[in-house]
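Dear colleague,

Following up on yesterday's call, I've attached the two folding results inline so they're easy to grep. Please treat them as preliminary; we haven't cross-checked anything against experimental data yet. The first protein's sequence and C-alpha cells come first.
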Amino acid sequence: MQKYITNNSGFSIIEVLIGIFVFSLGLISIYALLASSLSINTYNKNAIIASNLAREQVELFRNIRDTNYTKLQVWKQKNPGISYNSWELFEVEKYYRLENNFDITANFSVDVSEISPFHEWKDRLWDMQNYKLCLNSANTYTYDCSGGNRQTVFYKYLLVEQTDGELWDVYTITSKVIWYQRWYHEYDIKTIVSDWRRI
C-alpha cells in the first residue's frame, strides 16, 4: 500500500485577507499622499496668481496717480474734460474695480468703476459676481464674463481708505484677491499712496 504525504503549507483565507488589507492600506496611503500633493500644487498656483493680480491692481492705482501728475498736475482728480459725479477719481471708504484697457484707441488707459453694492465672504459668492474675474480669448484676466470668456475662481477689488493722521492727501490702499476652490482663500496687499510731490 502506498502512502502519500500531504503538504499543507499554503496560505489560509485569513492570511490572504490580512495580506489584502495591508496592501490596501499601502495603496490608500499613497493615494492620500498624491491627493494632498495635488491639492498643495493647486493652492500654490492660485496663491501665485492672486499675489500677482493684487500687485497689478496696486500698480494700476499708482499709474493713475503718476499719469495725473503728468497731464493734470493734480494726482487724484479726474479728467476735467469729462463729466463725473465727483471731482475726485477715488473716494474714501469705497470699493473699485481697476482694469487695463488694451484698446489702442483708448491710449491703453485704466478703466475704473465703483463696486456698488459691495458684498464679501464665502456665503456671499453669488453677490460678488460684479467683481468676479474671467479669462478672455487672449488669456487676460477681465471683469467681463460674457460671451466666450471663461469663468475663474478669482474675485478682485481695491479699497481706498483715509489714512489716520494729519496728512489729508495720504490714502491706505487695500488690493484684495479672493478665491474659492475647496476652501475660501484671501490674499491682500496694503500700501500707502500719497501726494508725494507736495508732502
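Below is the second protein, in the same order (sequence, then structure):
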Amino acid sequence: MYKNDYKHFKLNKMKTRRIFTMVIGISCFALMICMSGCKAKQVVPKGEEIVDLPCNGPEFFNKKCLIRATASGESQDQMLAKKKAQANSREQLAATLNVTIKSVVDNYYSSKAIDNVEQAKTRFEGLTRQVVEQQLSGVSTICEKLTKTKQNTFKCYIAQELNGEEILQGIQKKISSDEKLRLDFEYEKFKNEFNKEMDKGSK
C-alpha cells in the first residue's frame, strides 16, 4: 500500500513539474511578444499621428561622397507640381553646397601664406559657385512620388543627389583654367579639406 501511495505521489509530482514548466514557457513567450510589441509601438502626443512622407527618411540622408536633398511641390497642374519639387530640392542642394564650399575654402586658405589671401578666397569662392550651378543642372533624381490630395491638387515628393567627386573634379578643372589661382592651387590639400567636410555631413 505504501508503495502504491509513493508511486501515486511521484506521478503527481511529475505532473506538477510538467504543468509548472508549461506555465513558465507560456509566460516567457507572452512576455517576448509584449516586449516586441512595445518596441515597435511609437508613442506620440495625444491627437497626433506619425506621417511617413514619400522619398524621405534615413535612406535619403547624405552619404559618403553624396549630398542629398528631399522636397515637395504642390499644384493643380501635375507638371507644375513636379517642377516646384525639383526647384525646392535644388535650392536645398545649393544651400548645403555653398555652406560646405565656404567652410572648405576657409580651412584651405587658413594655412596658406600668400599675398592678398582675402582676394584669392573671394575669387576662389566665385569660381566654385559657378561649378555648383553647373552641377545642379545635372542633378540625379533618386526618388519621385506623385500623389493627389483631397483638394484635387497634385503633390510631388522628390529626392535628389549630387556626387561629391564630380563637384571636386569640376572645381579642379575650373581653377586650372584661372591663371591667378592655379599657381598656388594645391589639389591634394583642397581635396583633403573637401572630403573632411563631406564626411561631417554624411550619416
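For the second protein, one point worth flagging: DSSP finds six helices and three strands in the chain.

Best wishes,
A.L.
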